[in-house]
């Protein structure tokens, strides 16, 4: 009995292992692994079949040796279709011939019937719910054992009534394990499906946020362009006035263009464009583009550079965007002007960028909500700037920490892993 249990558990392991292995190595996001990875599954299931046949187990009495090769055959035929089924049949038939013995022809004939017949049930199988799937695989499993039983009786005269108990146990045993295997696969596929729809949902969310942000922000410049054009249509302005209006229109269009650039940088695909970035050079660029903005608001930009030139990994434009969004907030936090300190610091394994202002500061609750979409305390804020920054820094495997005190100021720290050249 103990030998039987061990043998059976080994067989179960041989069947489950390819499924688990697949789960471990498959790339997430590919639904229905038997359809998208037929070859892999066929190879893995062939290995299961061979292992099952090489290590069979005694069933109840010493006369009966049994293995569970039918389980991968049935499951493979149902999920993989006729070609997978044919390959698995060849593997098991060759294996069975190698083992030899009395039952060989019956076994091979039985396997042929399973391999040829079960794929016809595949369309039905894929339509029904999992309880009917369980019923279906159980029935197939039992039918194939019944075939063995009767074939043994008619060809070799094996007495059924003596062994009926054993046959029933076998049917329950193999049928139960087939059900478990099928349910395991169903479960894994369902997980995969849920994961995929979650990803899709998240992408949709991001897209709709950006659609909302861009349309919201574009409305203002468009409104003013429209207003000026209408004025120009209705009144006969002097030349100087016309030029002034036209310049305003051009400015508004430029603002709209910049806005589109800002947000579309974020919407660009993430992967495949991560490059080595020299933080110092990137920072200089950002400071150059932000200086006019800061100066116009009486904010003094102070820069302390580090001494190391270790690169980090990221997309240059996105990195700029992340910094610009923080700096813009810091400048906005100092309506009466002040000092904005930007410091580059290199430590053992990371590079930090500190951005410190002497602005209005935030409460703990506000700090905790930073990066949340639409979280804004400004009358004309979008609450998207820091969401973009957080997401970019996250894509670069960096981290953001914020220290802030109401009325005193705020310090943003971006920390990135250093790349060794
Ligand atoms: P927005 O600037 O459009 O409001 P952000 O995502 O850029 O959206 O910022 C969210 C909120 O975080 C701001 O409304 C502001 O209240 C707060 N905040 C961000 N940076 C600072 C800062 N340096 N000082 C004070 N408050 C800040
Ligand atoms: Mg902002």
Automatic annotation (TrEMBL):
The chain crosses the membrane at residues 12-29, 41-59, 71-91, 103-125, 131-156, 163-185. Pfam families: 5TM-5TMR_LYT, HATPase_c, HisKA. InterPro entries: HATPase_C_sf, HATPase_dom, His_kinase_dom, HisK_dim/P_dom, HisK_dim/P_sf, Sensor_HK_Regulatory, Sig_transdc_His_kin-like_C, Sig_transdc_His_kinase_LytS_TM. GO terms for biological process: cell wall organization. One of its GO terms (molecular function) is ATP binding. It is a multi-pass membrane protein. Gene3D superfamilies: 1.10.1760.20, 1.10.287.130, Histidine kinase-like ATPase, C-terminal domain (3.30.565.10). It is found in: Cell membrane. Residues 213-420 form the Histidine kinase domain. GO terms for cellular component: plasma membrane. Keywords: ATP-binding, Cell membrane, Kinase, Membrane, Nucleotide-binding, Phosphoprotein, Transferase, Transmembrane, Transmembrane helix, Two-component regulatory system. This is histidine kinase.
